[in-house]
Amino acid sequence: MLKIELKFTPDVAEQQKISQLFETFDSLIFAYEQKVEYLKNLKNSFIAKMFI
């Protein structure tokens, strides 16, 4: 089993910056997931129209 040691900073301001960074990453991941879903739907639409 992999052991990961995490060190936490006692500085609240630094913790907030790290938290904001992770929130930004989450937002970006969500936006890209939505874009991928949109593009998949668009592709399927084009494929369906090819055979009409």
UniProtKB/TrEMBL annotation:
Domain of life: Bacteria
SUPFAM superfamilies assigned to the protein according to its UniProt record, in alphabetical order: DNA methylase specificity domain
Protein name in UniProt: Type I restriction modification DNA specificity domain-containing protein
